[in-house]
Protein: Glycosyl transferase
Organism: Acidocella aquatica
Amino acid sequence: MRILFITSSRLGDAVISCGILEQLRLENPQARITVACGVVAAGVFARMPGLEQLIVFEKEGFDLHWLRLWTRLVGKFWSQVVDVRSSGISFFLAAWRRKILRGGRRPGRRYEQLGAAMGFSPAPLPVAWTAPADDARAAALLGEGPVIGLGPTANWGGKIWPPERFVALYEALTAQIPGARVAVFAGPGAHERALAAPVLAALPGAIDLVGNLALPEVAACLRRCAIFIGNDSGLMHLAAAAGAPTLGLFGRSRADEYAPAGLRTSVAVAPGPVGEAPMEGLMVETVVAAARRLLCA
């Protein structure tokens, strides 16, 4: 049995889609699974059990990436095709069953939309796959004792909470978690490093996890955090999927659609119009209170 899963090029959306993929895998334990996704999201699936092939593609002009992907897939017969991207190429593949999930913005949590489209009730929560080597690396990096994870970056400036407030947040939470150290998480590249730099500079003892790990290692580190607090980003979704108590910070994005989905998650939302509120309006006291409630949950 072969399953083809076409998913997002964005980290957060790819993580959200892992819930339905894991449900498919559990229902079909002998299946050989091919995942097609963008470069940024590839590490999300690297440790997935049952993975036969990971096809990474980059966007090209005139949608040529879809044609190139189709040429790599057309020679096989697929027991099931699940297309989270609504790409249309699934109609031109030999398949016993196919599910083309509708994209676009609409009300409701995204992971619940995907679960409903697949006929799963309740909708499965996202997961993060890791290997023992990833967990060992995380243990070596984070050591013993509680760690507060901070995610001060995002893919758009409007989603970013001021860096000095992350510093104040950590200092306030150390009273709630005695002996806690801080780990700063961000993605690869100079831009992410620059966004995280003010927090790292203000917290010189921080564990620097900015762009220097593979995604499964990041997930393993997040899983070890006593709490993770971060802007609406792919790392926020990965933290929730990994099982860390996760607090997402929202202002100019919609928590009703993209709040972190996991067993212990919450949000702190800036006051103002839904999805349009400036992050500067989100006060440190509000986030501290939300973090404390999550820790006590």
Q: What stands out?
A: The mean pLDDT is 96. The two ends are 42 Å apart (CA to CA). The CA atoms of residues 74 and 92 lie 8 Å apart.
